[in-house]
Amino acid sequence: MEATEIEYRLEESWGIGGPGDAETGFVVYRLDDYSKKWALEQGANLGSRLADYSGAWHSTPIDYARDSDRWEASGVEGYLGKYGYSIEVDEAWLEKANETMRLPGAAYSYGKGAASRS
Q: In sequence order, which residues have a C-beta less than 8 Å from that of residue 6 and are 6 or more positions away?
């Protein structure tokens, strides 16, 4: 999968940029046409099809029982602010992210990689 550009980015760091600093970020990537078509064709199997990419990928919707240590009922906002370092992400992007995480057909990862909506 290839990204062509970053559509939205908000990242903040509390510290001097070293190990152990607190960081929070929200980044939305635009996929190239081939990657977007491929992701759409995978449908609900997208998470398993991304297994060879960096990080462990999971299909949406989020399994809150499995990932209860990471997620709260408040959705992306709760995830981003879980450790007390929240950022003010644009409301329209939060709504899109929360909708994506509730519906099948997308994938997310806690490792290297980004959530991807098909």
A: 27, 28, 29, 30
Contact between residue 17 and residue 96 where contact means Cβ atoms under 8 Å apart: no
| Token pair listed for 62 | 């989020």
pTM of the model: 0.72
Whole-number Å distance between alpha carbons of 80 and 88? 10
pLDDT of residue 67: 77
- Give the whole-angstrom CA distance, residue 33 versus residue 39: 10
> What residues contact residue 10 under an 8 Å CB cut-off, 6+ apart?
25, 26, 27, 87, 88, 89, 90
User: Which residues are paired to 8 by β-bridges?
Assistant: 28
User: 23-36 in b/e burial notation, b at 16+ Cβ within 10 A?
Assistant: ebebebbebeeebb
List the structure tokens of 54.
């960096």
pLDDT digits (tens, 9 = 90+) for 76-104: 888 888 878 889 999 999 999 999 888 88
Question: Is the bond preceding 104 in cis, omega lying within 30 degrees of 0?
Answer: no
